[in-house]
Amino acid sequence: MIFAFLLYEPPPSADEEAAFSVEMRKSTFDANFHNLDEIREFVGEAARQVGFSEKEIYSIQLAADEASTNIIEHAYAGIENGKIEIDCSIAGDELKIVMRDNGKSFNPSSVPEPNVKADLSERKIGGLGMYLMRKLMDEVSYESSPKTGNALTMIKRKGDAG
Amino acid sequence: MEITTKKFKSCDMVVVNGRIDSSTAPQLTEALEGITGDGRFKIVLDMSDLEYMSSAGFRALLSSQRVCKRYNRGEIVLAVIPERVKEALELAGFTELFKTFDDAVEAVGSF
Question: Chain B: which residues have CB within 8 Å of chain A?
Answer without folding.
Answer: 19, 21-23, 52, 54-56, 58-59, 62, 65-66, 69, 84, 87-88, 91-93, 96-97
